[in-house]
Every structure is written in structure tokens, then in C-alpha cells.
Amino acid sequence: MATEHHQSGRRIDRRQFLSVGAAILGGAVVLDACGSSGTPSSGGATSHPPLSKEPGNLSILEWGGYEAAGTKAQTNGLEAGKTYTAKFGANSITYTYITNDDQALQKATAAGPFDIMHPCHENLPDYVSRGLVQPWDTSLLSSFKQLNPYLVSKGQMNGKQYMIPWDWGYGSLSYRTDKVAAADATGWDLAWNPKYSGRISLWAGASTAFEVAALKLGFPHIDQLTPSQVQTAKASLTTQKPLNKFYWESEYSQMQPAIKSGTIWIAYSWQDTQVAMKKAGIPVAFMNPSQGRLSWLCGFMLGAHTKNYHHAHDYVESFINHNASAQMTNLYYYGTANDTVKPSEIQDKTLVAALKLGDPRAIAGSDVHLQSWSPNRAALELAWQEVQAS
Q: Does the domain at residues 3-167+296-348 carry the CATH identifier 3.40.190.10?
């Protein structure tokens, strides 16, 4: 059966991202340089055994909450993957969980090999340069033509489609409106406000923590920090640490329950927290900071050494098709790469407008910061370890 190798999973426990020498959420500038707006090569040059000759036992590196429908691990109601499990069964799928983007790269490097991985695009250059992934054969994905060309281009390097985009969204601070004064909730500085000491929880991801600090400090290039800026951001995060109740790793088992109980009032999160708290009757707002929100794009990568080449393509097709994509957006309120999903199909019209869910280019808008590849990943990791040890 689908099994959980818990390392504190998220994306849902997702968007829990980050660890050794890599980077977080893909950047418009960096990956625009890596990608190509033209048609990517299919990656089908190598001969692969037919599906009937493959073992069919998929090993997937995934965020908690994104497991295929039909597996025992899927408990949130996601319907993506149900066409795959209906065809091949669920017992041969094993999930290893991502808790943050750096940690995802670390696991992909040391704990694999995986047939499929679901990281975010900022680390794409690292997965490719480390030989962890191979291009997809997009001709084997019948719904590929439905995907937004702009987001598709973010998954390309050297003219090849290394990532199939699926989900995108924002990162910001969620806060209890019955506990936090509106006048205090205007920017990332809220996480440093001593008035709320012990009621704050930042995410445990190194890259994201430094991006948040960089925005708070007003640095213009949050993923291209100079050595001096890294040290300044480290000092700022060290100052913030005593105010922090805990650094969360799991969205569903740590962060969201703590907001519901009132243990914390302020937390780094994605937009789905606002939806979950609304359903629970908890008054929570998803801040639009004066310095801008973070934004992210994630998708599926194909393991370089998979023996389940065709099964992997069938699995991803069962996620990126119209019905699966629309249901994911209505469940988690993340954007989808499938262009055939229209705003009229999304149930909460207020959130559609507030989050611009009908506009995939919103993640690269002037009021947001698309998380990007960081060339100084090792320095950030070391600095983050020093923050945590302080």
C-alpha cells in the first residue's frame, strides 16, 4: 500500500520547503535564462521497455497532501491520481515526504533514486546538474498541451522539459485577526514585533527564512544575497528567534493546529491556510505585505534512473488533466498550470479575485517575488544552522 515515510510532511504540508547546497522556488530571471520559450525536445531518444515490462512500483518524493486518490496516504480528499490508481492499483506506490525545498534536494541526492519528484522550480538547475532527473517525453502526456506556456517554460532547461508544472501560489504571513492588531499587520516586520513574542511561527526552510529576512530588510535581490547581506539577514533572523514559538515543518500537524488552538497567532504559510481556517471558523487573514508576498511554482520531475518510465508518465497525466487540476484548486486554493481550468470553476469567488487564481503570470507580478535559484546555497545553509543553534 502507499506508505508514509514521515519526515514531517507538508504541502500541504507543502509548501514546507529546503537543505544542503541547493535553492528554493524558481526565479523568473534565472530560469528564464535557463528555459526556452520554444517547443522542448521530448526526451524520448533513449529506448525504454514497454509499460508491460516495467515493475510498476513507483517511489515518489512528494509533499504531504498530494498523494494519489485511492492510496491510504491520501486523507484530504484530493482526487488527482485516481485514474492511475484505478488502472494500476495503489499498493505499489510509496511516498517519501518533502518538508521543505532544501530538504527535498537533499533527499533526492542521498535517499533516492525516485521515479517521480515534486519539488519547486527554483531548484531545477541543481536537480539537472546533479544528474537526478531526465527530460519528460511530453508526447506521452495527453494533457500537456493544456498547460500554460509561460509556466511550461519555467520547467525547461537547454530546450528540454525537465519539470511538468502543476501548482503555484504565494507565501506570506497568516495571522489571527482577533489577536493581532490590523495596524501591526502591514509587512514582514510583524514576525519581528515583540508584542507577539511566543505567538509567532516561521517555517523551518532555510531559503525561505532568508528571503523573508531580505524582504524585511529591503534588499532588492532576495535570492542573490551578497556575503555581507547574508550576515545581516542572519543577524536579523537571530534577533527574531526568541520571538518564535517554534519553526514549523508540518503545515497540517503543527502549524495549522497551533493557529486553531491559539498557541500561535502569526505564521508563515501559503494561501490554503486562510481557506482551512475559514472552514474551521477561525478568523485569519493572509497578509499582503507592503514589501510584497513570495510566490512559488512546483511541478513533477522524472527520476534519471527510473525503471518505470511509462508508469511515471501515466501517473503525472492523472494529476495534470483538467478535472484533477480543477479539484486541486478548489481543495487547496493553489493555482493550477492547466489553462483549461477557468475562474468560473473555482468555488470561492472572493479568493479567486484576491489571489488572481485565473492568471498564472500573477506569480511574477510587480507586487510579488517569485522564489528563485540561489547561487550561494551553501552559505545560506550554514548561516541558517547558526541561527538555529544560537
A: yes
